[in-house]
Amino acid sequence: EGLDLYVSNDMTANHFWRFDSVTKTLNEQATIRGVAFNHQSAAEASMGIAATDADGDLDLDLLVTHFTDESNTFYEQIRDGLFQDTTDSVQLGDSSQDMLGFGTQFVDLDGDSIDELLVANGHIDDFSHKGLQYEMPAQLFALDKDNKWQWVRDSATGPYFEEPRMGRAMATLDANRDGQTDLVVTDLFRPTALLVNQTPRVSETMTVRVAGVDSERDAVGTTVLVTSSNGTQMRQRMAGSGYQCSNEPILTFAIPEKDSEVSIEVQWPRGLTQNITVALPQRELLLVEPSDDN
Questions:
Q1: In angstroms, rounded to a whole number, what is the distance separating the alpha carbons of residues 269 and 222?
Q2: Is 195 helix (H, G, I), strand (E, B) or coil?
């Protein structure tokens, strides 16, 4: 019960405010939780934050983007509320060393229930006379069979990822209502880009919206677990992620076409757990929190 808050700070330790359900207070615990610094105990120029169940163990992991000559940092949640910097072991270090990352999001682009990672890059000033890039390409990463992140540098990703830019905020939405997650990316000097996801899919999608009744209306902090023949996927309704942006408040799940039903577990912010079974096909769901008055 209660919400935690993670804050990225520029060149100082990041903050992780943990909710204490007994005292009803937030306590700053970033250092003991493993997310204040990188694995070298260094504070970095933290910018954007992406959060998802990146390793499939049904809890949230974090990706934080950083300045040039600082790799982006992947914090894997290894126990409840305890994180470890595994950036190098999952191969996200070298590929971001020369970049300056801002907006970032985890998105399941192809519907295989495994998220890809996207990062918008661009420097804060022109230091090309020092051999540094000014405009930088956005990056798309995908997990390989060994659970290592590989930078996808393929023309199939589309022209946006081939041209250096001054990327900043990156937000997710389903712009054309086809069930696939699209992206909006702002640029320091160019018009905002709408990236429509046309990735061939291996399954159908189901989008979920949550509405609080006894919890607050937006139901931030609600965790939804959907179990299908492909296993269990976890998504959480978050107040914000990325960099200076807010995503469309929907949770998207990959559902095999052959399935006739799915089981859903909803963990509402006030501590109530709800279990339901949904017959398929069902492409959009609105889940309303049961009230104590009902």
A1: 5
A2: strand
Backbone φ and ψ for 270, nearest 5 degrees, come out as -85, 5
Amino acid at 160: Y
- Give DSSP secondary structure letters for 68-109: TTS--EEEEEEETTEEEE-TTTTT-SGGGTT--EEEEEEE-S
In this model, does residue 294 exceed pLDDT 70? no
Q: How many CB atoms lie within 10 A of CB 163?
A: 10
Q: What pTM, to 2 d.p., does this model score?
A: 0.95
* Single-letter code of the amino acid located at 54: A
**Residue that is written with structure tokens 């005292």 in the block:** 23
- Identify the residue whose tokens are 């997710």: 172
Q: How far is CA 220 from CA 136, 227, 274, in A?
A: 34, 21, 16
Report how far residue 266's alpha carbon sits from residue 8's, in angstroms, rounded to the nearest whole number. Answer: 28
Q: Per DSSP, what are the bridge partners of residue 226?
A: 233, 264
Range list of H helices, the chain: 30-33
What tokens does 252 get? 């998207």
**Separation of alpha carbons 215 and 265, rounded Å:** 17
- Edge-to-edge, what's the strand order for the sheet holding 167-173? 167-173, 182-187, 193-195
Give the CA radius of gyration of the chain: 19
Distance CA 77, CA 55 (A): 9
**Other CB atoms within 10 Å distance of the CB of residue 132:** 15
- Report d(CA 193, CA 173) in Å as an integer: 13
- Kindly report, residue by residue over 31-75, the tens digit of the pLDDT: 999 999 999 999 999 999 999 999 999 999 999 999 999 999 999
Q: Determine the average pLDDT of the residues in 237-246.
A: 93
Q: What are 177's two structure tokens?
A: 């209502």
